Amino acid sequence: MINPGISPKERAVNVKVHLIKVYMISSFFASLAGVMYVLQFITGRAPAGSARLLDAVVAVVIGGASLSGGKGTIMGTVIGALIIGALEIGLVNLSIPTYNLHIAVGCILIFAVLVDQFSPELMHKEEEIG
Transmembrane ranges (predicted)? Predict the structure, then answer.
């Protein structure tokens, strides 16, 4: 049985090797995404994905990841991405201009951050009452 209180270094796990493997896998998928982008749009530009950066951050925060770290799941991020995608499709179908879409996504990000910041305080108040 493995004691969860023991650090990986005490278990003789080579942390540096695993970290390098994770970085290699991440860079492989990033380069694969870049190649797929070039194949789809027949062009390569440095700021090409900058418009999607806000969507990615909002999807992760909506998915339950804390900006202070330590929380978050892959499934939550996928659900957050689906919510942002549904919002974009809905606003496009309503013929709302693109800049309004960014305003809506920014407002959702602000709301999600506020919920993230104040939810621990609300939980502590419920524990004190109950």
Answer: 20-39, 74-92, 99-115
Give yes or no for residue 18 having a pLDDT over 80: yes
Q: Is 104 exposed, middle or buried (0-12, 13-18, 19+ CB in 10 A)?
A: middle
CB 101 within 8 A of CB 88: yes
Query: Is pLDDT larger for residue 59 or for residue 120?
Result: 59
Burial of 112 (0-12, 13-18, 19+ CB in 10 A): buried
List the domain boundaries for the chain. 1-46, 49-129
pLDDT at residue 33 is higher than 50: yes
Vertex 77 angle, CA 17 and 122, to 5°: 110
- Which residue, among 81, 48, 86, has the nearest Cα to 73 in the 3D structure? 81
Q: How many residues does the chain have?
A: 130
pLDDT tens digits, 51-94: 788 888 889 988 888 877 777 888 999 999 999 999 889 988 99
- Are 33 and 52 spatial neighbours (Cβ–Cβ below 8 Å)? no
